[in-house]
Write a structure and sequence with these properties.
The protein is an alpha+beta fold and about 130 residues long. The chain has one domain. The protein has 3 helices and 8 strands; from the N terminus they run ααββαββββββ. The strands form 2 sheets. It has a 6-stranded antiparallel β-sheet, with no helix packed on it. Strands 4-5 form a two-stranded parallel ribbon. The chain is elongated and about 90 Å long. The protein starts with a helix and ends with a strand.
Length: about 130
Amino acid sequence: MNRVIVCLIIITCTIYLTGCTGAKTEVTVSKNPDAEEVLRLDPNADFFQWEGLIYQTNIDWVNEIELTKHELVGEIEEMYDKSNYFRDGMANKLPIGTKIFSTKERKDILLVEDEGKTKKYLALVEG
């Protein structure tokens, strides 16, 4: 009887100790791209920031979607010049005063009227 108890204790301890060795948990936190990251990946990117998200144009599959202009959501208030922090209402290529519109079909795409042309801007989100 003592041998059985000793064997069970040894087996239990072995399982417990091997289960705890070398166990590391790695946590990866993803975030939405910011202006600096977009410019690092494409120095010629055309984008603006709205409600904390970067919206970028000239994305092939987005340009092919038929969208309907919905409501005016705001306008470009500032131009980015690397000496200030990128914030909502700021663009790197669109002129100040450019109107920004929502679409009826999608919440992740905004429209702008620039030099008589409608441009489609996709929200850049991680995941």
